[in-house]
Structures are given as C-alpha cells and as structure tokens.
Amino acid sequence: MKIAEKQSEKRRAILDASLKLFCESCFYDTSTASISQAANVGTGTLFCYFDSKEHLVNELYLECKDEFATYIETGVWEHPTFKLQLKHIFERTVSWYTGNPDKIKFMMQYCTSPLITGLTREKAVLRMSVVSDVVKKAFETGELTSGNRDLTAHAISAYFHQMSMYIQERAEANTLKKYKDEAFALIWKGLN
C-alpha cells in the first residue's frame, strides 16, 4: 500500500471517529485521546493531520458540507427545467439526510457553534450554491419571474432542510415516496 493511501486512511479514520464521538458527546467532553483511540491511531498521529481539536471540528464540518453538496448537485444540470432541477435537489437532499443521520446531527449541532470559524462558514456557504445557481438560472430563463433571487434560494433551502428532517424522522419505507411527493408539491405550489 502506498504511503499516501495509508495516510489518507488514517485521516479518514480520525474524521469518522470524531463524527461518532462528537454526536455522542459534546466537543468539550470529547478528548483527542478518545478520538485517537476510536480511530485506532496514536494521539500524535491525530496532530499530524490536525493542528488542534478545533481545527479537526472545522475540517469535519467542511467535509460533511462538501459531501452533501457533491451528492445533491450531481446530475442536477441533466434536467431541462427548473421544476425538474428543484425536484432532483429535493429528492437527493431527502436521500442524503435519511442515509447520513450522524452527519446531519453534527452539522446542525455545529452550524451556529463559535468553534466553527468565519472562514469555515464562508467556505461552506460557497460550497452550498446549487440551489442559488438553479434559482438564478430560472430567473434568467423566465421560469421564475417575481421575487428576490437570494430570498427565494434561501427559502427553498430552508424548506428542503425542514422537510428532509421531517421525512427522516417520520417516514417509513412504504410512505417515503408519498411524503416526498406531498412536500415537493407544497413548495412548487408556493413558487407559482
């Protein structure tokens, strides 16, 4: 195995262990020693990848945001209309939420935390631009004609978050499609 692959595996193990421990306990009750132990690496190894526990939590936050953004934006531009693009984003959002409950819990716990730096917040916002991009294009093509672009994009994102949380908590396999269809119909009706 190449050294770079081994290093990447250790970094991944540290991030995965951190996610689990930060979701089980608060930041201050999670020691670097407990993270290292859960990741099966030496404590010194943790500091080879992250300068501090604060640096680690910021990197984990960005990784979760990046993974989520990559997942929801994949394939969005293959759809020819605003409605289909929006539906794609919504369905991918619900899918990611239901498949990654710990990452959602972590991102929600830390999105307003003073531990997350301003620079990290800026990077996360820039990375999460697909809804804004789709809304901007819809205004340019005339599929949306009234309202404030930025406000519309933020309202859609907030709605998708809330509905994905609702569906994640309540839907069973046999009701998932029904919940998704009803939730999307509501947002689409509100936009028209």
Strand-helix topology:
Elements: H1 3-24, H2 32-39, H3 43-49, H4 53-73, H5 82-99, H6 101-110, H7 118-127, H8 130-141, H9 149-170, H10 176-191
Helix pairs in contact: 1-2, 1-6, 4-5, 4-7, 5-8, 5-9, 8-9, 9-10
Question: What does the model show?
Answer:
This protein has helices at residues 3-24, 32-39, 43-49, 53-73, 82-99, 101-110, 118-127, 130-141, 149-170, 176-191. The protein is mostly helical. The model has no long low-confidence stretch (mean pLDDT 92).
Q: Key features?
A:
192 residues, 10 helices, elongated
Describe, in short, the structure shown:
The chain contains 10 helices and no strands.
Tally of individual helices: 10
Number of strands: 0
Structural class of the secondary structure composition? mainly alpha
H-E string: HHHHHHHHHH
Mean pLDDT: 92
Strand content: under 5%
Spatial extent as radius of gyration: 19 Å
Shape: elongated
State the helicity in percent bands.
Answer: over 70%
